[in-house]
Amino acid sequence: MNAKKLGMGIGTLGTVITLVAGCGTTNGTSASNNSSSGSGSGASKTITIGYITWDEDVAATYLWKNLLESKGYTVQLQQLDPGPLFAGLSKDNLNVFFDTWLPDTHKQYIAQYGSQLTSLGKWYQGSTTEGFVVPTYMKNVNSILDLKNISNQIQGKIVGIEAGAGETGLAQQAIKDYGLPETLQTSSTPAMLAALKKAYDAKQPIVVTLWSPHWAFSQYKLKYLSDPKKSFGAGGWIQTEANKNWASSNPTVVKWLKNFKLTQSQLGQLETDINNDGDTQGVQEWVSANQSLVDSWLNS
Question: What secondary structure letter does DSSP report for 72?
Answer without folding.
Answer: T
